Amino acid sequence: MKPYLLLLICCLGNRLFEQTIPDSTYRPDFTVKNISFKSANAKLKGTLYKPKHSYAAVVLIHGSGQETRMPGMASLLAKNGITVLTYDKRGVGKSGGVYAGPEVGTNNIDSANLNLLALDAGNASKTLSAQLPNHMPMGLMGFSQAGWIIPIAAQKNRNINFIVLFSCPVVTTLEQLRFQFYTAGNSKFWEKHTEAEAREHIKNDPDRYQFIATDPRDALSKLSIPGLWLFGGKDIQAPVHLSMENLDILKAQGKLYQYKLFSEFGHNTSSTKSPEPINFAIQWIKDFSESRQN
């Protein structure tokens, strides 16, 4: 067995974020158009969701796993006046290129793959930007593993005006692995362990794999755009309180970052059955858009 098959990197991907919203629910309120774009010698396929009246736009960025485009989330955002581009991850669905991940025996959080996925996100943003009026703010919205991808893409693409991140770690990839090996997918982990114990493990546990770590703070420290993180207090995939502490340090340096903790949520902070986090994000985007017009 290849060693990277054992990796647990944000293993929920964005499948949990795609529950229960049928693609056709809000069709009277927006148009849907298939779209494609090139990135690193691959053609990626996606869909553009365009409301009749839009005040902002986002590109949806995947979590880990073999993830296709996200019609449920795109429909919900379009219903609320946000233009959306969602696409199949490279090597998945109808997109070309080669997928990297533990399912195929490769490391999907090494720096080369994260930078490649950030390049895809950047090229998606350029494709979306070409479809928008000049004044409309555009951002990246992502899930889980996108916490490492989005900062890189935002740093390299000046057309990105804001970022929104659901359950995205603000720690290094190696720190994330230490935490996930410790929680081991145990849904009752926080009933038996303390934050102090988790911190101690993240700080001192020997790394099981050796590769160059990616630290999202490297890019986040260079950005001047606003960002919003939505966290679940019972998350066993991402070390939430350490991530919030790292964001506090960046905020103290003048960065325009904000986070919101939903104490009863786990890793899936955009459940349509309990929509508080996604509603909070939509309102945040709307407020940001309105502030740019004043």
From TrEMBL:
Q: Which of UniProt's keywords are assigned here?
A: Hydrolase
Hydrolase: present as a keyword of the record?
yes
One Pfam entry name? Hydrolase_4
Hydrolase keyword on record? yes
Q: State the superkingdom.
A: Bacteria
Gene Ontology molecular function terms on file:
carboxylic ester hydrolase activity
Q: Where is the Serine aminopeptidase S33 domain?
A: 54-174
- Identify this protein by name: Alpha/beta hydrolase
Highest classification ranks of the organism: Bacteria, Pseudomonadati, Bacteroidota, Sphingobacteriia, Sphingobacteriales
